[in-house]
Design brief:
The chain has about 170 residues and is α+β, with helices and mostly antiparallel strands. It has a single domain, classed as Lipocalin (Beta Barrel), CATH 2.40.128. It has 5 helices and 8 strands. It has an 8-stranded antiparallel barrel. It is globular, with a radius of gyration of 15 Å.
């Protein structure tokens, strides 16, 4: 494993560009060091999204291609929008540019234990009946890694257990 990028040690300098330079292992380390938002309302509004790194493969041509696709302007996912409903419950939706600007795949939000490390995190739950079956198997979670910058872990539930798939970022800057 390579040494962590300087940005990992100096959290206040982090931005989406710097997060894109980190591999899956470095992002996981940074995620574990991140903090749970103090309130659901901390994420109210529209966040710019970036897909960062897939769990497998972590290197090679396919990993490079997936990373470049996630950075490109043709990548359909643009971010997420959040709204706290009450202190411990909220909702959100993904913003997608596909056949025009769309808002697809609603999710509920809450604080819960992380599937990454069991510590407190902000969970995005897609299990509602309004989503297609594959989307209902997704669970995301995010932690703050710099002011208004959140690192997210995404997983697919397989036999009821979350299996980590990738890291993404959300920026409110």
């Amino acid at each position: 494993m390579s040494a962590p990028a300087p940005a990992v040690r100096e959290h206040t300098e982090l931005d989406l560009t710097m997060l894109r330079l980190l591999n899956y292992t470095e992002l996981e380390k940074l995620y574990r060091a991140g903090k749970r938002p103090s309130a659901l309302a901390d994420l109210n509004g529209d966040a710019i999204g970036a897909m960062l790194a897939w769990r497998t493969p972590s290197s090679g041509p396919l990993a490079w291609m997936l990373s470049k696709f996630g950075e490109s302007s043709i990548f359909a996912w643009k971010g997420k929008s959040f709204k706290a409903e009450v202190e411990d419950k909220g909702e959100g939706i993904n913003r997608v540019s596909l056949f025009g600007k769309r808002r697809w795949f609603r999710f509920g939000t809450r604080f819960d234990a992380s599937f990454v490390d069991g510590q407190p995190t902000f969970v995005l739950d897609y299990s509602g009946p309004h989503n297609p079956p594959l989307i209902r198997s997704i669970v995301d979670e995010v932690r703050e890694v710099a002011p208004k910058l959140y690192l997210g872990a995404a997983a697919l539930k397989v036999k009821g257990q979350p299996r980590p798939v990738l890291f993404f970022a959300l920026s409110f800057r």
